[in-house]
Design brief:
The protein is an alpha+beta fold and 201 residues long. The chain contains five helices and nine strands, in the order βαααββαβαβββββ. The chain is globular.
Amino acid sequence: MADLTLNHLDGAEASNVFEQVFRIYALVYADPLYSQTDADRAEFVTRAARHFKQPGFDLTCAWMGDQMIGFAYGFAIQPGSGWWDGIEPSQTEAFLRETGGRTFAVIELAVVPEFRGQGLGKRLIGASVSCFAVAGRNARRSRRTQKLPRFSECTNGGAGAKRAGSQARLARRAPTSTCTRYRCARGRRRSAPGVPGRQAG
């Protein structure tokens, strides 16, 4: 996938490409495994519009030319959101306490069938979580300098651990060391490196 590019979009920007997001979502969930109906797809439209407005929202898109071939989106878990309600086994209060900058939940991940099996899903999640981790580090630095940097001014670090949930994957406490695997540039596409071997997409 030498011509693959990734980019990051905020909620307003995501609305501008929603037609392509929905196209991929509908294609992926047309698989009989999911048994989705027209009502399910309509519910996704409503749900996505709500998600796009969440604090810390990020849509990471994979493109081949002008064609979107995959995406992952999620947002920062806010204090009092109830995200951890009912988690088993029970956890400590420190584990459950959210700050709005600690935990990024990947809500949707989809890759068109012909590009699966090449690690693209893993790369999309890694890019989303890494940009969130670095943005959080930059925000902490900004509180010391009283100058808030743009969220797009970051270089990704590594991805955190993931927890599977009901149509959600959770990434917690991603490492904060920087690298240059991707560049988090909202609205601008950057070439993504190849990943050796074949991973599930």
